[in-house]
Design brief:
The chain has one domain. It has five helices and no strands. It is flat. The chain is an all-alpha fold and 125 residues long.
């Protein structure tokens, strides 16, 4: 991600000044002029280069909420017959997966070869 300009940083700070969650599009429209953007500047033109920074801030929020999911799963273990546990587990798992605490997917590739020879394409000059 490239470094943000002062104007972009100000816009993000204004968007997230009330904390999270936030409707980024609506809030950006509301505060873009305070951040120094012209009223006629397209909001998509403003937000497109900020996509990584917005994603990062939203992930930080998800990480903060992950502890609630862990607590909810712990409660399910203590009271497994409580009504609504199925939905609670699905919601908690979804949040944990999206915040990076869920199952890690790995691909296992097995290669079996009869001989130890690999034929490569001709070298280009």
């Amino acid at each position: 991600m490239s470094a943000l300009t002062e104007q972009q940083t100000l816009l993000l700070d204004l968007i997230y000044e009330d904390g999270l969650p936030v409707d980024v599009l609506a809030k950006a429209i509301e505060v873009k002029e305070k951040a120094g953007y012209a009223a006629k500047t397209s909001i998509y033109q403003i937000l497109r280069p900020l996509k990584d920074a917005i994603t990062e801030r939203n992930q930080e929020y998800m990480i903060l909420d992950a502890s609630k999911s862990i607590t909810a799963l712990h409660d399910v273990v203590r009271t497994p017959t409580k009504p609504g546990n199925d939905q609670l587990i699905k919601a908690a798992n979804s949040l944990l997966d999206r915040s990076g605490f869920g199952k890690k997917e790995t691909d296992v590739v097995e290669i079996k070869a009869d001989k130890g020879i690999v034929i490569l394409p001709a070298k280009r000059d």
